[in-house]
Please model this.
Amino acid sequence: MEPIQGGLASSRRQWTALLLPGSVTLAALFLVPLGMLVVYSFGTTDIVGRPQLGLTLDNYRLVFQGYNASVVVRTVEYALVATACCLVLGYAVAYTAARFAGRWGGAIVGLVTVSWLVDYLVRIYAWKQLLSDGGFVNQTLDRLGLAPVSLTGTSLAVVAGLVYGYLPLMVLPLYASLKDLDPSVIDAGKDLFGNPRQTFLHVTLPATRQGVIGGCLLVFLPVLGDFATAQFLGGPSNTMIGNIISDQFVASGSQTFGSALAVTLIVLLVLCVAITAVAQRGRGRVTEVLP
Amino acid sequence: MSASGTFDRPRFLWVVTGLTLAFLFVPVVVVTVFSFNSSASLTSLDGASLRWYRAFFDDVDLLASLRLSVVIALVSSVASVVLGTLVAVGIRRGTRFIGGPTNGSVFLRVLTPETATGVALLLLFTQLGIPLSTTTVVISHTVLCLAFVAVVVGSRLALLSPQIEEAAMDLGATRLHAFRLVALPVLWPSIVAAGLLAFVISFDNFITSFFTSGLGVPPLPVRIYGMLKFGVTPVVNAIGVLMLVGTVVAVGLAALLAAQVRRLRGAQLEEAARG
Amino acid sequence: MVDQSAPDLPAVELLDVSKRFGRATVVDTVTMSVRRGEFFSLLGPSGCGKTTSLRMLGGFVVPDEGRIRLGGEDVTRVPPYKRDVNTVFQSYALFAHLSVAQNVAFGLKRRKVPRAEISRRVNEMLELVDMQDRSRAMPSELSGGQRQRVALARSLVTMPQVLLLDEPLGALDLKLRRQMQVELKRIQREVGITFVYVTHDQEEALSMSDRIAVMSRGRIEQVDTPDALYARPASAFVAGFIGSSNLLQVRRVGQGAQTAAGAVVPLPANAPGLPDGSAFTLLLRPEHLLLDPVGDVATMRGTITDTVFLGSMTQYRVHCAEGLELMVSVPNTSSHHAHVRRPGTQVSVGWQADDAVVLPADALRSTTSAENASAPQ
Model:
């Protein structure tokens, strides 16, 4: 009945052979480039700005210095605020869709998905059309006899744009985990003298923890690296890490400094995943929070 | 129900949900409505016309970018589906020695912001002296999509009992043969769905393309970026609507296939229960 | 705890309560009253409205009409978290993110009970349900029976006026279910709390309850003690649902009753004065029927079509000459053991006239209950 050990081992080898092309691709085009980022983040640039290998911390000093440090802090702030907004709005939408909407629940989630399918840049552009000084919102204000307000070039515009861009990534995992939740668990919370607020905080929210963590990671991490939103909806005082990174690599900047910034970004990412892993405390692996 | 408090009131939640959906759809509606505007104004409607769609289809450069984006999406989605499916299967069935680290890489690739991976690839290509071109974009998209395909196919594979294959092997098939005969027919709808997802990710991709495309014809999103940077034109609205329609059709197909998978699995479970 | 100030008031009262979902009336003007400290069961087939009645008691569903009182106080529109009533859910509904002890402590924490008292009462309760060794376990690590005990402890620890149980043993296997029935009854006696228990399993209801309300199609058919329900069912539905039964559609003829096929059988001495020719139903329990009786009993001739050995008794299906199918149960005493009848044997079936029960005729319902009755219990 038992398969012969040699047969099992050789079949494992066959499967591993199939795995190799993908593993090699990932290693060569994902891990190696990340490694190069780390290596060059300690490097220097020559006169024409080409990166050179080296062992200096100058790039990192630059990252945590004055203006750049404020950009790093601002990026984390924006990402935290945008994730929090996405969580609140996303939870309301997912909760309504999963618990009150009946057959319409799927339709609500479908609508959210469709809005996400509009091209990323076109969506930002649409907001620019709406918010710009001569744009739709200000025209309306004008017609109503109200003073026009400057909407673009503000933190509000950038955060709103980020919330808009990544909200659907929050709704989907939350909807999935709320759908999985046995409604009588919520009833039990109310039954045991939890008023609606307590029941939500002590029962519903912890029971959908996986969805909350998954959604927050899916929003927070890409927002950290986003640059087009700040570029088109923000002004000079709304720059994010992504903007500086892209300037270093695409405009004539320092690629080694850009590498240090990108490594900073990845360190932030690893920190988040590590915190998540600790928060999960062996209640299932971190990979399971992804949809 | 008579319970009070905002946490238990469907009406309150419906209002928030409605406002959020409006928030999500106002820009979509604006883009769609103004794509049919007859004037170049982005603030007032001056009658309906197909002027901006015509402008798009008359613009040789834009059409070239569109064609390029389709080609890139086709090539990289096919490549990533082949590699990603093999990765998903290999992680579950192969040795842990390679499967474990590969699984970790897939997970990390999905989570790492494209800005970081994009500049990392740019650094790799420039340091190796590889000129940026359509090829570098295709390669970069393939790595990106490979991870998503591996996640999608892997989650389906996790629900598939290895006993089905063992049964086929029991009947004289070799292991790979058994996989091809019994597992692949069940997996293929999710593989196609993953392929459509890869196509959409690649076709809509801006950040990775931005860092890895060269001086030639840019992919469509990179072209749009340029247009936005150097002044706005209503043609972008028309492009947005066309891309939306295209991706909705693609994702609709993917959703249909996913439903098909569920039905198939349901039928299988029934069969198992009966047998 | 039980409110001592008004000892005479019933623990639970439903007064003309109705609930509709869309067009379907799920609970139809139900009135009932549960005494303090009573083990009261709502028994009926699925869809009879018993769970909706329970959910109205718990506060999860607000009735369209009628009033609900707990200890004399009107709670019709009071939300669940302000009702001194707890529910044990069919799915247990344990909080997966909390340990066993934290689950049990949940209700006490919401009631702002001091910390030291919480830990004392949680320990007491876990001891009562025999789960003191697993207080740190997570629900996912428990077996079905253990989850059941935790759910029970969680609902009991706050000492509600009334405990509602919604088919709590439905997910357990037969052996565990038997064991838990005994446990539940013991726990109820120890804590002295009123239990309202919903089940579709007649054996469960009969073995545990002080009184049972039999429900059908949103209405209460009869409320009585288990033995009274069995001995004196008020309708063919109750007769069919509780225990197995033979139901004869008959007409009054003189001092006896005539079956559809024309056989005349005697009526019990206590039969109500029915006018000649009126239709009614005669209930005969299988264990009251005798095979080849001697002496002064009514008899019918028939052929055995089926013999099923059931351990303590043997069950026969007898096809009578009058076109009737009768189920007969005979205890497997040593004397009967020597005379087990094979299918095909000609027999006479008889009964003491007073063992028959007269039920009002309701042809529609008796057909469905006859199907119920044919299943061996």
About this structure: The two ends of chain B are 46 Å apart (CA to CA). Chain B touches chain A through 93 residues (CB under 8 Å).
